[in-house]
Amino acid sequence: MSNQQVFDLRDVAADEKAFEGRVVTLQGWIRNHRKQKNIGFIEFFDGTVLSAMQIVYDEHVQDFAGVQALRNGAAIRATGKLVAGRNGALEMQAQELTLEGDCTEDYPLQPKRHTLEFLRDIAYLRPRTRLFQAVFRVRSIAAQAVHNYFQSRGYVYVHTPLITANDAEGAGNTFTVTTQPMGKPYKAAEDFFGKGTALAVTGQLEAETYALAYKRVYTFGPTFRAENSNTKTHAAEFWMIEPEVCFCDLNGLMDIEEDFLKSIVREVLDKAMPELVFLQGYAKSNLIEKLETLTASSVARVTHAEAIDILQKAPKQFEHEAVQGEDIFKEHEKYLTEEYFKSPVFVYDWPKDIKAFYMYQNADGKTVAAVDLLVPGSGELMGGSQRETRYDLLTARMNELNISTEQMDWYVNLRRFGGCTHSGFGMGFERLVMYLTDIENIRDVIPYPRTPGNCDF
User: Fold this and answer.
1) For residue 284, what are the contacts with CB-CB under 8 A and spacing of at least 6?
2) Please, where are the H alpha helices in 192-299?
3) How far, in Å, are 233, 266, 370 from residue 436 at the CA level?
4) Whole-structure pTM value
5) What is the pLDDT of residues 356-405, one digit of tens each?
6) Is 214 helix (H, G, I), strand (E, B) or coil?
7) I need a surface site. Which of 85, 146, 182, 341 has the fewest CB within 10 A?
8) How many helices and strands (H and E) does the chain possess?
9) What values do phi and psi take at 280, rounded to 5?
10) Closest listed residue to residue 310, CA positions, set 335, 342, 293
């Protein structure tokens, strides 16, 4: 039987009728092993689909005593006949079970529901649990959906640098990159690059340079922010999706954002339904209905000033007052999306003083052509803007914020060398995965979370 063709559970799930009655070989791991005197039941998974398969064996299996000694977590090779079980799903009547890799008695993943905090401490093992099998398959499908969307529409995928000499957001929350020993006076001229550098917080500025050559580009890669925050939505390392589109103004950008999000959600609904069903049961939520509703909804559009006016007239008391010219809070986002509009909503034309230097300055002198997409259940999911293309206004704003136009001459010069109206948005990929899975903590949608005090794996 060692020469038997090896199949995946994915192969079986794709055509159960064709496999029923066949003798096949599978390779994978034991999630749970229940033993009786003359019979045993193994919950078997191989990671290719969410569903496990039950393997049933009795005294006729080769080396019955050895099979009974197999422990949870062990890697095995199983050969047997596939038959319909009591619940209608195929199960294996085992003929031979071979140990591929043993597992010790202190294996942490025993058959019970573990807390998320416990599983974070064993992040190298948590992909073997049902929950994280579902989460990270959704993440994989969503990542491919991102590429499918942009590639099918003629965007060029650009790999922007992870080490940079600029801070695009102007926040200063960056990780320094240096070869100089700690504890001694820093000498930029003697450092590896001859200047101070940091891990990138965004790839947007570099993407703009490529957009002005290819018309439509996107980046999709890791970014880093050194915010000392322990909230459920912050991590020090995360992935960003950042398209940049030439000859596109703010209204055109909102059209793209809406189409993009709905396309990603549709593809996940189409390709990850078993995972979504499991996650909905885990979170005790209406996850699938939420996603299906989004794909069918029309997205409202309201200026920031109009949004504040709506909030100020709301027939309810907020913990934080809504103030013209200031940012809005999570509770405000929730009211706008879930109570007032009952749909996703674009909030655009934000106060200039709370937005980044590169955003297009509106004629009123007080606002910029920026937009946030708010969605029911999650709040802000995307942020974007039309970019400032007027040389004098861009440099004046940079000088006002003490951002060096000399150090960033390559960016400023785009306005001198064939610049055009262009826009782009950014979306944190982990926030998208949280929305797609109803998982509440960013630490549980990224394989190895990097948060303050945590870089263990």
Assistant:
1) none
2) 204-214, 250-271, 273-283, 287-296
3) 14, 11, 25
4) 0.94
5) 999 999 999 999 999 999 998 888 999 999 999 999 999 999 999 999 99
6) helix
7) 182
8) 14, 17
9) -65, -40
10) 335
Whether residue 117 has pLDDT greater than 80: yes
Quick count: other Cβ atoms within 10 Å of Cβ 324? 12
CA distances from 423 to 10, 207, 217, 246, 306 (A): 42, 11, 11, 7, 23
Q: At what angle do helices 429-437 and 130-151 cross, to 10 degrees?
A: 120
CA dihedral 58, 64, 70, 72 (to 10 degrees): 10
Q: Please tell me the distance from the alpha carbon of residue 56 to that of residue 69, in angstroms, as a whole number.
A: 15
129-166: b (≥16 Cβ within 10 Å) or e? bbbbbbbbbbbebbbebbeebbeeeebeebebeeebbb
Distance CA 99, CA 67 (A): 8
**3-class DSSP assignment, residue 455:** coil
* DSSP symbol at 358: T
Measured at the CA of 98, the angle between CA 95 and CA 99, to 5 degrees, comes to 150
Is 145 in contact with 192 (CB distance < 8 Å)?
A: no
Cβ 230 vs Cβ 451: under 8 Å: yes
Q: What is the 3-state secondary structure (H, E, C) of 179-190?
A: CCCCCCCCCHHH
Alpha-carbon distances of 380 from 345, 415, 428, rounded to whole Å = 9, 30, 10
Share of the chain above pLDDT 90, in %: 88
Q: Which of 289, 385, 296 is nearest to 346 (CA)?
A: 385
For residue 378, give both structure tokens.
Answer: 């999650």
Q: Which amino acid is at 119?
A: L
SS3 (DSSP) at 328: coil
Q: What is the three-class DSSP state of 330? A: helix
Report the pLDDT averaged over residues 400-419. 93
Amino acid identity for residue 378 in this structure: S
- Per DSSP, the residues of 78-91 read EEEEEEE-TTSSEE
Tokens of 43: 């919950």
Q: What is the pLDDT of residue 2?
A: 53
